[in-house]
Write a structure and sequence with these properties.
Layout lengths: L1 H15 L6 E4 L5 E4 L6 E3 L2 H9 L6 E4 L16 E2 L2 E2 L1 H6 L4 E5 L5 H9 L4 E4 L6 H13 L2 H22 L5 E9 L2 E3 L5 H8 L2 E3 L13 H7 L3 E4 L20 H4 L3 E3 L2 H4 L6 H17 L2
Parallel strand pairs: 3-4, 3-7, 7-8, 9-11, 9-12, 12-13
Antiparallel strand pairs: 1-2, 5-6, 9-10
């Protein structure tokens, strides 16, 4: 009888104990990612992923990150596991992560496959559209158990984005050439999130018809497009190389009207909440271009 009562008591205690549901999300590659419990040790394989993990409230779960993970300031102190294109797999494994956040188009597919083969849980991020940023932050919050931070952060991004869109809706279009790099000359194609940011400001990407995210273009193609504004970014916050070289083409509308503009690369080329800081700066530049007509 004593044993029966003990067994019944144990059964009641087990029934009353909270059952933690498995965490299941689908990443940007379409793969299903499963965690038995929120991640406590996270490794980031891209600077934008590092920044978005902090935005999601999971910064204190990060135990390693790639080079150039420099925002927020706390990220600079994280142990380095190589660069996004040259990962140190041994260093990653040694950190014993329960979640690895990878960059689908930026990390070498073979390296990501190797991490999966070693039994690590990998979540791949590929924010190609503005809405992918807050949606990704929400998913990272679920994986880390920090939804109380991630949800308001995502909502704030959407609210700010909507306000920018409403402010510039209906403004006269400004044809824009965005210079990703000067040699070889490359730009943002229609599938690039930068192209969407240009549209958010009432601009028109003159190479939006190109499907590649970062297509090479010829000088002749830019001259033929005759953009009203040329926007370029440097490495980090350095002034962009080659922007002033356009001044030799005096017949270009962008040159004739002095519409050669600079936006720091980490505000335009990282799909994080700070992309809206870059968008606001770009919008101001395009308003300047309209005023010079």
């Amino acid at each position: 009888m004593h044993r029966l009562r003990l067994a019944l008591l144990l059964a009641l205690l087990l029934a009353a104990a909270p059952v933690r549901a498995e965490i299941v999300v689908r990443d940007d590659s379409g793969a299903v990612v499963r965690l038995a419990e929120p991640a406590r040790r996270i490794v980031s394989l891209a600077p934008h992923a590092t920044e978005n993990l902090y935005a999601a409230g999971a910064g204190d779960r990060l135990v390693g990150a790639v080079e150039y993970s420099d925002y927020p300031a706390a990220a600079r102190a994280l142990p380095r596991i190589g660069g996004y294109s040259r990962l140190d797999l041994e260093a990653i494994v040694a950190l014993r992560p329960d979640l690895v956040v990878a960059w689908q188009s930026g990390n070498a597919p073979g390296a990501v496959a190797r991490l999966k083969a070693l039994g690590l849980t990998v979540y791949q991020t590929q924010p190609d559209r503005l809405e992918d940023i807050p949606a990704g932050i929400e998913r990272l919050g679920r994986l880390a158990g920090t939804e109380a931070v991630a949800r308001p952060a995502a909502a704030a991004f959407r609210q700010r984005m909507a306000a920018l869109r409403a402010r510039h809706a209906g403004r006269p279009a400004v044809p824009v050439f965005y210079q990703l790099w000067h040699q070889p000359l490359s730009t943002a194609g229609g599938g690039q999130i930068i192209s969407e940011v240009i549209g958010l400001c009432g601009g028109a990407n003159v190479f939006a018809h190109l499907a590649d995210k970062a297509p090479a273009v010829s000088l002749e193609a830019v001259l033929a497009a005759d953009p009203e504004a040329i926007v370029a970014s440097g490495m980090g916050r350095d002034s962009p190389i080659g922007l002033d070289d356009w001044r030799r083409y005096a017949r270009l509308r962008a040159v004739a009207r002095d519409n050669l503009f600079y936006v720091p690369s980490d505000l335009m080329q990282r799909p994080t909440p700070r992309l809206l800081d870059g968008a606001e700066l770009l919008c101001r530049h395009l308003e300047t271009a309209r005023a010079r007509r």
